[in-house]
Amino acid sequence: MEILVSKTALLDKLKSVGRIIQPKNTLPAYDNFLFVIDESGFIQVTAGEEGGRISTNVDGKADFVNRSFLASAKTLLDGLKEMSEQPLAISIYEKEMVVKYANGKFTMPIEDGKQYPEMNIDDSSHSFLLSGNDLLYGVRQVQFCSANDELRPTMNGVYFDIDLEKTSYVGTDGSRLAMVELPASYTRKERAGFILPSKFAKLLSNLVPEDCLELEVKVNRTNVQFDFDSYRLVCRMIEGRYPNYRAVIPQNQSKRVVLKRNDLLAALKRVSVFCNISSSLVVLKFDKSSLLITAHDFDFSKSAEETVILQDGCEAIEIGFKSGFLIELVNSIPSEDISISMTDPSRAAVLSRCDEEERSLTYLLMPMSINN
User: What is the pTM (predicted TM-score) of this model?
Assistant: First the structure.
């Protein structure tokens, strides 16, 4: 039994699915790649961990069908990565595989593929389509705001709120919140909602090609499945009810300013060097024409201040934020101009993009108390 495949075609697919494999797995099977040659002779490779798995098809030719086997992921990757591009002939025996290349060969043990745990989407699942470009934008703009908190597991992921006419992507850790709302690209007959664990949201955003037109999503009571191009990602959803994110977003805030994103970002990075290490507090003082950014560290007798010109100002207000959170949010807004809306120093501020882009983006950041 033999498989003929290009070294680059095989290695690229192994690397793309292999990023899910953890350094330490609860089940030894997850240290391996699962190879499946189906009844049509197509070659599929799968890698996974306890919470999910990624599968893809490999361009190659097998002279046999209906066989599956496990091969050590680390050994196979290390054996292939130093080779130049060339055709490979992989002979499959009962207990071992032999990889033959131009100047030599290497042999490694294999095991029966039936040992690999199953994870499937059953027939009761809901199915719908998402635009690939919309999903990449939504997940990338919000997933960094997700929490890593064992006491609040529902916040440890990206919430997909699938409505009939729009799709919302949400991430929050309690101190900040990110929400992207996009008009539905496809007609839907039913609503859906699920929490995708953060690590799988990041994997998905790295796997989906920039030119991907659409993804098929299937959701049942425990798992969610994404199909796109030649890939399939299946993982367990986070169980529980996601917080009512819309209720915490302030409406009709009385103070709104508009300014250049790059001007604000550069000033924040310079001034934040002088923040108190424990609090990381920066103070923003707005008026009708300018913004004064200040930071102090009284323990080490250092301070800084910088003025940024506003394009559109507001009534005077002074509000404090954690510098690292504010810098990360400002840096993530993909527009030349940004707006900051506030009510008073004790309530959350809302940051958003200021351009003609239809894809909305809302960042919410809770303030810190200012001790003058």
Answer: 0.90
